[in-house]
Specification:
The chain has 206 residues and is mainly α. It has nine helices and no strands. It is globular and about 45 Å long.
């Protein structure tokens, strides 16, 4: 990777990070809890997805730049909306990358990652899409993210954790595309379940 390309990637990373730390002012982001959520999202979710994606790109191949960009941008839609952030995010990712000086082919590949990372309407097809989708699932198994989220969420804690635990089961079954990564996740899943159960029981008695 050239120094120029590295600088361009770092510039984009800082741009997206700033969007999370200082989100655009609108009705949705006027809420303090919402702003805290977006900052927490970058620190405890987007960044871990980037790290996991980078490690898997070494093991499973794929275009490292596309994977890195896809990881950075995969949840960009959440900055602007609560629903269908994969659809809005795909469009946003494409527009931002073009404005930041990336080529159309790169922007299209990253848009594909963002559109498919939730495995809702379309399933990942390329190795780059599968890596970021798998990394997204892996990052969902980090207790720190959910504990931080619960601290600022408006929802009832027990309901929030129960919903997310169901999501984890779905992620494990549907979003992990590499057998070796599923094996690694078994331990993480067990540890998360312990934290979930302990917190749930604690809440019942408080």
């Amino acid at each position: 990777m050239s120094i120029k390309q590295l600088e361009k990637l770092k510039k984009l990373e800082e741009y997206v990070k700033n969007l999370h730390y200082n989100p655009p002012k609108n009705k949705l982001n006027d809420n303090l809890r919402r702003r805290e959520f977006l900052k927490n999202l970058w620190d405890y979710h987007v960044w871990p997805v980037m790290e996991a994606s980078c490690k898997m790109s070494i093991e499973y191949g794929g275009d490292e730049d596309i994977i890195w960009l896809g990881a950075i941008m995969h949840d960009i839609g959440l900055i602007y909306t609560r629903k269908n952030h994969d659809i809005s995010g795909g469009k946003l990712a494409y527009e931002i990358l073009i404005k930041q000086g990336f080529g159309k082919k790169t922007a299209e590949k990253v848009r594909g990652i963002v559109l498919r990372h939730r495995c809702r309407r379309e399933k990942p097809e390329t190795v780059e899409e599968k890596i970021v989708t798998t990394a997204d699932a892996i990052a969902h198994f980090a207790p720190a993210y959910y504990l931080g989220l619960a601290a600022i969420a408006n929802e009832d804690y027990r309901g929030l954790m129960a919903d997310n635990f169901k999501k984890l089961v779905s992620d494990y079954e549907n979003k992990v595309f590499f057998p070796a990564e599923k094996i690694k996740l078994k331990k993480a899943a067990g540890e998360f379940k312990k934290v979930f159960m302990q917190k749930s029981v604690k809440n019942v008695h408080t």
